[in-house]
Design goal:
With 106 residues, the chain is mainly α. It has one domain. The protein has helices spanning 2-22, 29-49, 55-78, 84-104. Helix 1 runs antiparallel to helix 2 (29-49), helix 1 packs across helix 3 (55-78) and helix 3 (55-78) packs antiparallel against helix 4 (84-104). The termini are close together.
Length: 106
């Protein structure tokens, strides 16, 4: 169940990051409300995952995969460029996340 909570937390993390861009410095009401709710949801579901997972594993995967999702959705929604160095970095993050999951034995 911890990995399901972590997956949900990652979705919230991506929503939070993308929502922050839409707030225009927290000057837009509804994007700001959305962003704050996404942040709260992400922290809450991460805390549920960390009941079982080691904090180093859970937090690293949450931020790493959340970062990849944010970059990918940023490219789709905001036309940001994905370069070869970014792709190589994604591969490193994914390899690290898989290694952490295997090392955690959970």
């Amino acid at each position: 169940m911890a990995w399901i909570y972590l997956a949900i937390a990652i979705v919230f993390e991506i929503a939070f990051a993308l929502g922050t861009n839409a707030t225009k410095g927290f000057t837009k009401l509804w994007p700001s409300v959305f962003t704050l709710l996404a942040a709260a949801g992400g922290i809450y579901t991460l805390s549920l995952a960390l009941r079982t997972l080691d904090v180093g594993v859970g937090y690293t995967i949450w931020t790493g995969i959340g970062s990849i999702g944010t970059v990918l959705f940023g490219a789709l929604l905001f036309k940001e460029k994905i370069t070869l160095p970014k792709v190589l970095s994604f591969a490193s993050i994914i390899a690290g996340a898989i290694t952490l999951k295997l090392a955690a034995g959970v």
